[in-house]
Amino acid sequence: ALSVQADIRLNKYRVDPTNINVRKLIAFVAQEDSLQVTATAREAIYFSAKLRLPRSTTEKELETLTTRMLTELGLLDCADTKVGGHLKKGISGGERKRAAIGVELVVKPNLLFLDEPTSGLDSFSAVRLCQVLKKVANAGATVLFTTHQPSSSLFASFDRLILLHKVRVMFQGPVEGVSSYFRRPWLPQSTALQTC
Fold first, then answer.
1. Lowest-pLDDT range, 15-19, 117-121, 188-192?
2. Quick one: which of 31, 34, 46 has its CA closest to 83?
3. Which of 17, 125, 157, 162 lies 20 to 30 angstroms, CA to CA, from 57?
4. How far is C-alpha 2 from the chain's CA centre?
5. What DSSP character marks residue 32?
């Protein structure tokens, strides 16, 4: 028989990830979104709120929340445009990513995890997406996402960084400390070159 053991902690407290109260604190945005191609951005966010918020939430509250989310995510101009997909034209890739984030943000999670949210986006859309995530972080949530080879402007918008190389942590800390860390004289030159 297969036995799986884990020690998962939030704020140093041990938690059970199968507990619904713990799961309500966490939101995850996958690299490939699962938005309905025939729905509009407004409908996607509204539908998520309707399904995931308490039944006592009124229609007026749902509509207000949806409009606020569309405004904060910069989606008002395309709110009533179909999401679309590979076979059906719809909103842009950056707008899709922001809509997918909005679908998760309706529950006001404490932790927001995103799997490569900037992949496939042009540099302008990637920076705009990071600005949205910065707003979410400034509102009190913890935002953690993976990215590969970010542009310098995107990199400058990060607060903290965990730099991995072949599954090993090469650096962890504030972004401002990266340059000085890799310029340290005791660090082998070959290591510094491999991780940059």
1. 188-192
2. 34
3. 17
4. 32
5. S
Q: Indicate the pTM of the whole model.
A: 0.79
108 in the Ramachandran plot: left (φ > 0), alpha (ψ -120 to 50) or beta? left
Amino acid identity, position 17 = P
Residue 178: which H helix or E strand, with range? Answer: helix 178-182
- What is the bridge-based pairing of β-strands 142-145 and 13-14? unpaired
Beta-bridge partner residues of 174: 160
> 138: part of which helix (H) or strand (E)?
helix 123-138
Cβ burial of 143 (10 Å; 0-12, 13-18, 19+) is: buried
Element housing 168 (H / E) = strand 168-174
Tokens 């890799």 correspond to what residue? 182
**Two structure tokens written together for 19:** 């507990």
Retrieve residue 157's tokens: 């918008």
